[in-house]
C-alpha cells in the first residue's frame, strides 16, 4: 500500500508516494538519498510537512521523511551556547527546550510548525526576528558532489524567507543546524508593534523570554497558526504568501494606511495580508473544499475535503485580486510539489 502524503503535511493534502522512507539516523538519511540518486529517482525531502502543497497525484519518486533526533550543546561563559540540533527535531519542541535551558534568541519563533532542518531553508521568522540572526552553521549533504558540506552563516546567503538552500532546490540535504544563543532570561528587543502591545511594553524593550513565548503562542493561536487536529481552521501551510518587498518608489504608490517596514537596503516591506484584505479577499471565503481561514487571511485552509487544485485555485484568485488592485504580484511562501501557481 502506497503511503499517502496527506498523512504527512499540515494541509492534509497530497497523493501517494511511489516510495516512502523514514530516516531516523544521519546514516539512514544519507544512504536513502544516495540510493535514490544512484537509481535516478526523483527525491522529495520532508520534515514536518508544514510548508508544502503536494499534488493530488502524489509524487512519482522517493519521499524521505527526516526523523533524525538529537542535540548537543557547549556553553561558553562569555559568548553563550553553541547548540547543534539534528534536522528532524520538532522546531517548537526545540525552542521550548532551549528556553528552559536559559538561552535567549528564539523566543519570538515559538509555535512555528515544522522541523529544525526546515528553519534555515525558509529563513523562518516571526514578530520581528529571523532565525538567521542566531544560526552559526548548517551541515548538509551535497547531492551534486556526493559529499558533506558545512555552510557558515554568511555562506547560507540568508535573505527574507530565503537562503542558498531554497535557491538551489533539492541540492543540499540539511543534516544538522548549529545555533549560537545568548545566556539569559531577557528576550531580544521587541521589534513588532502587535507583540509589544500584547506585552504592554514599548518597542525595543526586553522582557522575560518565557513571557514572550506565552504571548507569541497566544497571538498565533488567535490567528489559527497553531496546528490543531480537531480544528480545520488550522489545517493550513501557515502564511501562504510572503510579504512583498518593494522599491521605495513602488511603496510610495500604496495607500497611506498600508503597512510599511523600511529595510536596511532602502526597500520597503509591506503586508501581504493587508493587500489581500484591501483587494476584497475575505476571511472565511470558501472555494470547494478550500477556504481562507476565518482567523487570518494569509492562511489558506483545507476545510476537510480540499484537493490540491482547490487550494491552488483559491491562491490564484487571491493573487489576481491583489495584482488587479495594487499591481503587486504576491509570491508564495509554500513549496509546490507537482503543481504551480
Map the helices and strands.
Blueprint: E1 3-4, E2 16-23, H1 26-38, E3 43-46, E4 52-54, E5 59-66, E6 71-76, E7 80-86, H2 91-100, E8 103-104, H3 118-122, E9 125-126, E10 129-130, E11 135-142, E12 147-152, H4 164-167, E13 172-183, H5 193-199, H6 209-222, E14 245-246, H7 248-252, E15 261-262, E16 268-269, H8 272-277, E17 286-287, E18 290-292, E19 300-302, H9 308-326, E20 335-337
Parallel strand pairs: 2-5, 3-5, 4-20
Antiparallel strand pairs: 1-2, 6-7, 7-13, 8-13, 9-10, 11-12, 11-13, 14-16, 15-16, 17-18, 18-19
Structural descriptors:
341 residues; Uridine Diphospho-n-acetylenolpyruvylglucosamine Reductase, domain 1; 6-stranded antiparallel beta sheet; 4-stranded mixed beta sheet; 20 strands; 24% helix
Can you walk me through this structure?
- By secondary structure, this protein is α+β, with helices and mostly antiparallel strands.
- It folds into 3 domains: 3-66, Uridine Diphospho-n-acetylenolpyruvylglucosamine Reductase, domain 2 (2-Layer Sandwich), CATH 3.30.43.10; 71-185, 2-Layer Sandwich (Uridine Diphospho-n-acetylenolpyruvylglucosamine Reductase, domain 3); 232-337, Uridine Diphospho-n-acetylenolpyruvylglucosamine Reductase, domain 1 (Alpha-Beta Complex), CATH 3.90.78.10.
- 24% of the residues lie in helices and 26% in strands.
- It has 9 helices and 20 strands.
- It has helices spanning 26-38, 91-100, 118-122, 164-167, 193-199, 209-222, 248-252, 272-277, 308-326; strands at 3-4, 16-23, 43-46, 52-54, 59-66, 71-76, 80-86, 103-104, 125-126, 129-130, 135-142, 147-152, 172-183, 245-246, 261-262, 268-269, 286-287, 290-292, 300-302, 335-337.
- The strands form 6 sheets. Strands 6, 7, 8, 11, 12 and 13 form a 6-stranded antiparallel sheet that branches.
- The longest helix is centred in the C-terminal third of the chain and has 19 residues, at 308-326.
- It is globular and about 55 Å long.
- The relative contact order is 0.13.
- The mean pLDDT is 93.
Amino acid at each position: 500500500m502506497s503511503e499517502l502524503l496527506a498523512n504527512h503535511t499540515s494541509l492534509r493534502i497530497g497523493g501517494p508516494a511511489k516510495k516512502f522512507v523514514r530516516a531516523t539516523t544521519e546514516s539512514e538519511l544519507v544512504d536513502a538519498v544516495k540510493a535514490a540518486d544512484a537509481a535516478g529517482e526523483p527525491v522529495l525531502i520532508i520534515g514536518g510537512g508544514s510548508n508544502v502543497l503536494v499534488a493530488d497525484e502524489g509524487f512519482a519518486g522517493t519521499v524521505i521523511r527526516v526523523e533524525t533526533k538529537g542535540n548537543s550543546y557547549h556553553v561558553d561563559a562569555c559568548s553563550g551556547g553553541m547548540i547543534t540540533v539534528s534536522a528532524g527535531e520538532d522546531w517548537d519542541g526545540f525552542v521550548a527546550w532551549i528556553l528552559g535551558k536559559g538561552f535567549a534568541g528564539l523566543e519570538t519563533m515559538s509555535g512555528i510548525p515544522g522541523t529544525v532542518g526546515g528553519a534555515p531553508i525558509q529563513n523562518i521568522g516571526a514578530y520581528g526576528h529571523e532565525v538567521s540572526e542566531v544560526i552559526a552553521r548548517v551541515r548538509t549533504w551535497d547531492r551534486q558532489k556526493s559529499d558533506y558540506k558545512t555552510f557558515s552563516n554568511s555562506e547560507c546567503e540568508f535573505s527574507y524567507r530565503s537562503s542558498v538552500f531554497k535557491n538551489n532546490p533539492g541540492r543540499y540535504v540539511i543534516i544538522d543546524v548549529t545555533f549560537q544563543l545568548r545566556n539569559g532570561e531577557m528576550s531580544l528587543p521587541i521589534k513588532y508593534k502587535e507583540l509589544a502591545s500584547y506585552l504592554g511594553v514599548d518597542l525595543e524593550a526586553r522582557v522575560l523570554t518565557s513571557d514572550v513565548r506565552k504571548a507569541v503562542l497566544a497571538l498565533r493561536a488567535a490567528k489559527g497558526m497553531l496546528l490543531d487536529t480537531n480544528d480545520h481552521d488550522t489545517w493550513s501551510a501557515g502564511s501562504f504568501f510572503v510579504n512583498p518587498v518593494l522599491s521605495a518608489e513602488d511603496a510610495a504608490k500604496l495607500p497611506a494606511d498600508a503597512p510599511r517596514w523600511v529595510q536596511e537596503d532602502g526597500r520597503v516591506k509591506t503586508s501581504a495580508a493587508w493587500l489581500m484584505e484591501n483587494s476584497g479577499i475575505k476571511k472565511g471565503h470558501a472555494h470547494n473544499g478550500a477556504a481562507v481561514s476565518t482567523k487570518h487571511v494569509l492562511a489558506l485552509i483545507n476545510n476537510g475535503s480540499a484537493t490540491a487544485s482547490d487550494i491552488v485555485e483559491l491562491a490564484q484568485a487571491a493573487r489576481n485580486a491583489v495584482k488587479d488592485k495594487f499591481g503587486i504580484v504576491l509570491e508564495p511562501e509554500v513549496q509546490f510539489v507537482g503543481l504551480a501557481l
